[in-house]
Amino acid sequence: MQPAQPPFRRRGKKIRVGLSHVTVLNESVERNVIWHILGAGAQGLLWAYGLHQSHQHCRLLVRNSIPGAMATYQSGDRTVHFSVSMLTAELVQEPIEYLLVTVKANQARQALQSIRSELSDDAIVVLMQNGIGVESLARAVLPPRTRFLLGSSTHGSYRQSANHIVHAGQGQMLIGDDTGQISADHPAIQLLQQTPLNVRWHDNIQRVLWHKLAVNACANPLTALLNCRNGELRQQPVAQSWLPALIEETCAVLAAEGHPLAVSELRQKIEQVLQITAANFSSTQQDYLAGRETELAFINGTLIRCAEIHGIEVPAHREILRIVEQRGSLGAWQALSNS
């Protein structure tokens, strides 16, 4: 058995990260810290792997319970098999105090409603969705004393099969709080930073989310319509013909929202993301290919709504969102080429 990691302290609390569990001691009351993960997609499984590797308890909240499920993590030539508890919300026996929400933005409202009664009154909820808008609906759905953290992942990952995740691109988990309720030295943040997922605190998480939205709004619809991996966009003539207009419109809206990016900066960010996650399929591409609703209402849709407020014209974003929403995968290339 490996020795426990050294304790760290904050405001009278002592957190000990041991081999099999994490214990919080506060005023002589001892209890296990259990992370619950709402959503068993690629990001949920990535968090489950990270928590497992740092010897922390976690449970995936799913539609059909599999208490002793096995999952697979793959990164290059490295493969790790690990056990994970998959439970329905009804089988959770104690109030949920630490919740990672990894369902997609368009699934968040229904998913949060399904676990509302299981949350403790002052639970810490980490929202990891793409786009803008989930925080406001989460505040409307969950108890008023719930404390929220906002997160953004730059990891590239996708599911090879139901419980098999491929970590296609190493990145960061950026987490922050724009309300001032939680700070970087909070025990929850310290625990997440024990994982191998490169978790970092960011003081301006809204800017992070807007800048990620900017990249996703330009790249994700194209990966869906051209049915390609992220890195393949760089060699797609049709994608390269669309990107200049999408980038310019995006930068105009970001400036109006107070999170400016120069056109050259956004193009560089897009290039970096496409390079780092070259082998990855975007979540939009996967949803589109499977005939599911995509997250673009929270990405391009948010951009369009903000453009309307500021009186900015965004014809390229309107058109590409229309193509995604109205056309199936057959003829997608022709749809783009003839637009």
Automatic annotation (TrEMBL):
InterPro entries per record: 6-PGluconate_DH-like_C_sf, 6PGD_dom2, ApbA, Ketopantoate_reductase, KPA_reductase, KPR_N, NAD(P)-bd_dom_sf
Biological processes, Gene Ontology terms: pantothenate biosynthetic process
GO cellular component, one term: cytoplasm
Tagged with keyword Cell inner membrane: no
Catalytic activity: (R)-pantoate + NADP(+) = 2-dehydropantoate + NADPH + H(+)
GO molecular function, one term: 2-dehydropantoate 2-reductase activity
Keyword annotations from UniProtKB, A to Z: NADP, Oxidoreductase, Pantothenate biosynthesis
Keyword 4Fe-4S recorded: no
Pathway: Cofactor biosynthesis; (R)-pantothenate biosynthesis; (R)-pantoate from 3-methyl-2-oxobutanoate: step 2/2
EC number of the protein: 1.1.1.169
Residue ranges of domain Ketopantoate reductase C-terminal in the record: 204-326
Highest taxon of source: Bacteria
Residues annotated as signal peptide: none
Transmembrane segments: none
Residue span(s) of domain Ketopantoate reductase N-terminal: 35-177
Pfam families for the chain: ApbA (PF02558), ApbA_C (PF08546)
Function field: Catalyzes the NADPH-dependent reduction of ketopantoate into pantoic acid.
Family statement: Belongs to the ketopantoate reductase family.
Name this protein carries in UniProt: 2-dehydropantoate 2-reductase
Organism: Permianibacter aggregans
Organism classification: Bacteria, Pseudomonadati, Pseudomonadota, Gammaproteobacteria, Pseudomonadales
